[in-house]
Design goal:
Blueprint lengths: L1 H42 L10 H7 L20 E9 H8 L6 E4 L6 E9 L1 H12 L2 E4 L3 E5 L4 E6 L7 E20 L5 E20 L1 H13 L6 E5 L4 E6 L1 H18 L2 E13 L9 H4 L5 E5 L41 E6 L5 H7 L3 E7 L2 E5 L4 E22 L2 E25 L5 E21 L2 E14 L2 E5 L4 E18 L14 E20 L4 H24 L1
Parallel strand pairs: 2-5
Antiparallel strand pairs: 1-3, 4-5, 6-10, 7-8, 8-16, 9-10, 11-14, 11-15, 11-22, 12-13, 13-21, 16-17, 17-18, 18-19, 18-20, 21-22
Helix pairs in contact: 1-9
């Protein structure tokens, strides 16, 4: 019997070992699958446009002996020449222009008029372009030569890649103080009583953004081509097409506008943020000393509004360069922050590509708590909003309805509930220049809402109402930063009062008697909210490849920690 039980125990242990081994194998297979997928994604490389081989270029351009990367036309290289004509018929002018060359010329039968010009050291292509700009003769260029067309109204279809959406956003920051009016409304029949009041806005700022590209597009195109006879603009926002009927020169202006507009609209930026709470040490109760942090050689800090960029020449408000004692221009990388130790908005240039170095330096002045690490991607001039928290409903308005009947008066209270947000909200609107500089409208808000009971008497009855006690720390600013530069918003202070209890160990915990051996006091400390924001302009696939590689590294580190834990 004992042997039988022993066999059963050994069999159960063997099965458990097999199951554990199978679980490890499955986990190992899952990790291997993730590694393979990330490695495959990181290995994808977008090839650059390659130049045609030399032998192909030699065939396309015989006798040139010059390698031309990205050749856009197959016409032979043209020799420069001088040309001078006066009132020459247009048809004769164009046909004579390519005489004794290998370039073909086809002139539409409707082409007429006279041309006068005197040019030195020009090519056929340059002459054709000049006659288009001056006389309005339209032409098309193909692999063999030119086709000259009359200047008349034409239709052309342009593709436009943009979402068929209309967006609007508003960022509001208001400081209210005091009551400015109040009124009581009464009805003698029903004895309705209500009270309303208003508040005085001592300071407020409102930022509104509206993105309705398709409606604005048609207005812009009509202003380019005009509304003359035969001209029209049709915008098909569902198909992403624009049909324009206008003169050839006006069509070229439309094409140029749409090309530049799409380049600007499709610029993309990745916004990384860190919302940090720093419990200040005793020596930094006035706030974070950024001048002390800037002593690190890895950081260069620039106060916004004065500095034109990290590593650049500093200038005063009039634009004149700042000079040191030796008469040399002051660079932002050598900036001394002794005069602005507690600046609340500035930019930081760091040799590190992450926030880690700055957070480490902040920890020297207090305990650092990372409240949130949002990351969002958005395109040019489009508002991005991040919200993390909860909404709770509180009573914001109270009224009573007194109804008189034969049996007496009935009082009915009416309450109005309003949601209050408690958490972190951040809205950012970027404007990205062609050079990669970013102008940001930043509106962070950190709110904490607590319950506060208020006793209200209505119609002889007493009510306890849960009202909201809201603590808000927010700012609204516009700042300019370079690509990859960290923008710091600081100075959002808060006083924290807590109860501290001390006593003799062991004795102070004894009921009743222990109270005599306890010491209670109010402890006050200060904390500062710091918001770090870094814009990264997306450069085609290069930035995304870097993020994929970062994901590969994080997964490898996670796998290494898992293996050590096993």
């Amino acid at each position: 019997m004992i042997k039988r039980h022993l066999c059963i125990i050994m069999l159960a242990g063997l099965l458990g070992a097999c199951a554990s081994s199978q679980n490890r194998e499955v986990a190992q297979q899952n990790r291997q699958s993730i590694d393979d997928a990330l490695t495959e994604a990181a290995a994808v490389v977008v090839p650059d446009a390659e130049s045609p081989p030399d032998e192909i270029l030699d065939d396309l351009v015989p006798g040139s002996g010059i390698a031309v990367p990205g050749l856009e036309q197959d016409l032979e290289f043209e020799n420069a020449f001088d040309i001078s004509v006066s009132k020459a018929p247009a048809r004769l002018f164009f046909m004579s222009l390519v005489k004794e060359t290998n370039i073909n010329m086809v002139v539409h039968p409707s082409v007429e008029g006279e041309i006068s010009l005197d040019l030195k050291n020009v090519t056929v292509a340059e002459v054709m372009q000049l006659t288009r700009e001056v006389y309005g003769y339209e032409f098309k260029q193909n692999d063999t030569g030119y086709i000259v067309l009359p200047a008349r109204i034409q239709s052309k279809i342009f593709p436009v890649n943009y979402l068929n959406v209309s967006r609007s956003g508003e960022s509001l920051m208001t400081v209210s103080s005091g009551q400015i009016d109040g009124s009581n409304d009464q009805d003698s029949n029903n004895s309705d009583n209500s009270s309303t009041s208003g508040s005085l806005k001592s300071s407020s700022i409102s930022t509104t953004s509206v993105a309705d590209f398709w409606s604005e597009l048609r207005t812009t195109l009509v202003s380019i081509v005009g509304d003359g006879q035969g001209r029209s603009v049709v915008v098909d926002r569902h198909a992403g097409l624009v049909i324009v009927r206008a003169m050839p020169g006006e069509l070229r202006d439309v094409e140029n506008y749409l090309s530049n507009a799409q380049d600007n609209l499709q610029r993309q930026v990745i916004l990384e943020a860190k919302v940090i709470e720093v419990d200040l040490n005793d020596g930094f109760q006035s706030g974070i000393d950024w001048a002390a942090i800037s002593d690190s050689r890895n950081l260069a800090i620039a106060n916004t509004g004065v500095v034109r960029g990290i590593g650049r020449v500093l200038a005063d408000e009039a634009g004149a360069p700042l000079l040191d004692a030796a008469g040399n221009a002051v660079l932002s990388s050598n900036l001394d922050l002794g005069n602005i130790p507690y600046a609340n908005l500035f930019a930081v240039g760091s040799s590190s590509s992450t926030f880690a170095s700055l957070i480490t330096l902040l920890s020297t002045q207090g305990n650092v708590h990372v409240l949130s690490s949002p990351r969002v991607s958005t395109v040019n001039n489009q508002k991005a909003v991040i919200k993390v928290g909860t909404d709770e409903f509180f009573v914001t308005e109270v009224s009573s309805d007194n109804t008189s009947t034969a049996s007496g008066t009935t009082t009915t209270p009416e309450l109005t509930l309003t949601p209050f947000f408690s958490g972190i909200a951040l809205d950012v609107t970027p404007q990205i220049s062609k050079e990669g500089e970013v102008i940001l409208h930043i509106h962070p808000s950190i709110s904490e809402v607590d319950d506060q009971l208020k006793v209200v008497t209505l119609g002889g009855e007493t009510f306890e109402l849960p009202l909201a006690l809201s603590t808000v720390r927010e700012s609204d600013s516009v700042v300019k930063a370079q690509n990859g530069q960290v923008v710091v918003i600081g100075g959002l202070m808060k006083n924290i009062t807590s109860d501290e209890v001390g006593g003799l160990p062991g004795v102070s915990d004894v009921p009743f008697v222990g109270e005599a051996f306890k010491q209670k006091r109010k402890a006050n400390r200060r904390s500062e909210l710091v918001i770090l924001l870094r814009p990264i302009v997306v450069d085609k696939n290069r930035v995304w490849s870097n993020y994929i590689q970062e994901s590969v590294d994080r997964v490898k580190q996670l796998n290494a920690n898992t293996v050590e834990g096993e």
